[in-house]
Amino acid sequence: MSSNRKLFGATLAAVTLLTTLAASAAPGVATGNVNVRTGPGTGYAKVGVLSTGEYVDVKQCQGSWCFVDRASNTDGWVAKSYLAPANPPSGGGSGGSSSDIPLNFGVTVGPGGPSFSFGIGDAPPPAPPAPPAPETPKVCFFKDKHFAGASFCATPGQQNPDIAGNWDNAIESIKVYGGAQVVICKQPNYVGLCATISTDKGSLSTYNNNVTSYQVF
Q1: With b meaning 16 or more CB within 10 Å and e meaning fewer, what string describes 170-182?
Q2: Longest CA pairwise span in the chain (Å)
Q3: Fewer Cβ atoms within 10 Å of its own Cβ: the N or the C terminal residue of the chain?
């Protein structure tokens, strides 16, 4: 078989496995000896061993585990990293494997349904997306309860020893981002009764409409 035909056959097998895996059986081959278990995890009982080169029908995948249908042995769950897409053998022999072409594939089941990725070659599957950037520390003040009405925000290091204008004694809720904290006081220059706020407060209780100075950390 020419290399182009082998490449086409392996690609077709990979696409077939990845697009039908969640709904129906797809051909796979074991890339190494791996335990077969009653459930998707090492905490489940072992019911057999899938041998290197053994052909199976992959019924479904859950996380890093797949349920396989074995021709003459006990069905069960195996680690997905030990499976590769494959052309099923003809006449019960061991031929037809695409093991001479390195394949990698991934299956992820999430709230929106399964998603698939595959590649041909030695490169690993694409890396997962980077986590979101951390929130910028800041504190936001609102004129109404439950974070409603007019608002303004301040970052760590900012302070106001004597709130003037229409914000003096007019704050009723505070929202905190990125681990910031704020000290609020009922009197100017941070004297008298003060409180430290480190989490969202939909109502400031006795400090409602009674904040005259603040410091953000």
Answers
A1: bbbbbbbeeebeb
A2: 89
A3: N
How many domains are contained in the chain? 2
* CATH number (domain holding residue 95): 2.30.30.40
pTM as predicted = 0.43
The answer to whether 45 and 17 have CB atoms below 8 angstroms apart is no
Q: Is the pLDDT of residue 66 over 80?
A: yes
Look-up of token digits 């809720």: 173
- Residue 212: inside a domain: yes
Mean pLDDT lowest for which of 53-57, 130-134, 165-169, 193-197? 130-134
Q: What is the pLDDT of residues 81-133, one digit of tens each?
A: 999 988 655 544 444 433 443 444 554 444 444 444 444 444 555 677 788 88
Domain carrying residue 204: 138-216
Q: Which two tokens stand for residue 161?
A: 């020893």
Q: What is the DSSP string of the chain?
A: --HHHHHHHHHHHHHHHHHHTTTS-EEEEESS-EEEESSSSTTSPEEEEEPTT-EEEEEEEETTEEEEEESSS--EEEEGGGEEE-PPPSTT-S----TTS-EEEEEEEETTEEEEEEEESSSPPPPPPPPPPPPPPEEEEEEEGGGEEEEEEE-TT-EESS--GGGTT---EEEEETT--EEEESSGGG-SSEEEE-S-BS--GGGTT---EEEE-
Task: Say if residue 47 is in the same domain as residue 105.
Answer: yes
